[in-house]
Write a structure and sequence with these properties.
mainly beta, 6-stranded antiparallel barrel, 6-stranded antiparallel β-barrel, 12 strands, 41% strand, globular
């Protein structure tokens, strides 16, 4: 489990293709602290460390993950948001994030808010509780954020300078594709309503 509080970004230094899988090799300043089989969220996608060499480590994404997230669009040199899994005694500074991306969204607007920024994202509605609510939580590329201006197909988030500078929001522009994980509590409530309220 994760909290949506990004620890740092890592640079993608190489990609290997193995049939329908892709191995991503990242350079991170905490590589010496990692171990094989450790779970790390990459742009909000929970992936397992499979290899460590020097200051780089490797994770593997299968076709399902590549199809449902923006990882398949990554290029060497891209920055990815990283968060190691929470410890049981950790403070939940963001919200409950599973590392299971629901779908992608496209940035349709980026507005300067005199020191901060507003980003608007649009996504294809798919039902099953995959929606946002005003002042609710959503994870965008693994970053826990508060929703504003929620509609059935879009939402806006406010990004403060610290988040802009310490995540890959600094590289998101209009047209960029991001990963979304909707609030798990909202997804369960919506599913229950679909099953029992007719």
């Amino acid at each position: 489990m994760f909290s949506g509080i990004v620890e740092r970004t890592a640079e993608l230094v190489a990609i290997r293709t193995d049939r329908q899988n892709k191995d991503f090799i990242f350079r991170a300043d905490f590589t010496s602290e990692l171990k094989i089989d450790q779970s790390i969220a990459h742009n909000g996608v929970c992936l397992t460390v499979v290899e460590i060499e020097g200051n780089t480590y490797t994770v593997t994404a299968m076709k399902e993950t590549l199809d449902k997230s923006n990882l398949g669009l990554l290029k060497v040199g891209d920055l990815v948001n990283l968060e190691r899994s929470m410890k049981p005694d950790a403070l939940l500074d963001g919200h409950i994030v599973q590392g299971h991306v629901d779908q992608t969204a496209c940035c349709t607007a980026k507005e300067d808010a005199d020191g901060s920024w507003y980003f608007t994202f649009e996504y294809e509605p798919r039902g099953g509780g995959l929606c946002t609510v005003e002042k609710g939580s959503v994870a965008v590329n693994g970053v826990s954020l508060t929703v504003c201006d929620s509609t059935p197909t879009s939402f806006r988030v406010a990004i403060i300078p610290y988040t802009f500078e310490h995540t890959n929001f600094c590289r998101i522009e209009v047209g960029s594709v991001v990963n979304l994980e909707f609030d798990i509590v909202g997804k369960y409530i919506a599913r229950l309503m679909q099953q029992y309220i007719k």
